[in-house]
Amino acid sequence: MPVTKELTKLCTFLVKAKKATYASQGEANENFLDDGAKEFTYEEGIFKYQDRYYGFNPFTGGEVVWNNGKFFWAMNYYGRIVDASVSSKEIYAFLKKALRRVEKELPYRGPVRFKEGKFEYFNKSEGSIDEFVGEEIIRYNRKGIYKLHYHGGSVK
Asked: Is a pLDDT exceeding 80 seen at residue 11?
């Protein structure tokens, strides 16, 4: 499916929204909802972004974007630490650094690859902003310690 002008604007907006929410604010600054969810929101122009998640390890959640008040795009995710040999605090601090490097060409999670010290982040996806599926992995000393699966696309 061809990527429309509207979807291109969405990619630019998603980068701003993701950098302004979890990637920068982390676990301490989200809104706590009555149903146990934690939530971040961001608005700019015609777009509104919401990231709502449940749990810590494992955790699940979803991101939704509205365009002029209409449900427009969504992504679901499920992730967890698969090896507790590194503290969750260190893992999520590194994850946020990777997520701040999100690019408008692949605005789902972080970059294709990011390395800092003994940590390595990998993000592999298929599809386009209109319909996609992907996985992110964090390794420490080449050993897998964290994994997340995601999928989503535009909604009519």
From this structure: yes
Are the C-beta atoms of residues 40 and 31 closer than 8 Å to each other? yes
String of DSSP letters for 58-103: SEEEEEEEEETTEEEEEEEEEEEES-TTS-HHHHHHHHHHHHTT-B
Is the pLDDT at 35 greater than 90? The verdict is: yes
State residue 26 phi and psi, 5-degree precision: 70, -165
Give residue 81's pLDDT: 98
**Number of domains making up the chain:** 1
pLDDT tens column, 107-124? 999 999 999 999 999 999
The C-alpha atoms of residue 64 and residue 83 are separated, in whole angstroms, by 30
Distance from C-alpha of 19 to C-alpha of 14, rounded to nearest angstrom: 8
Cα separation, 76 vs 52, in Å, equals 10
| Cα gap 60→69, rounded to integer Å | 25
Cβ atoms 136, 122 nearer than 8 A: yes
- What residue numbers bound the domain in which 148 lies? 5-154
Rounded to whole angstroms, the Cα distance separating 75 from 65 reads 9
pLDDT band at 33 (very low <50, low <70, confident <90, very high): confident
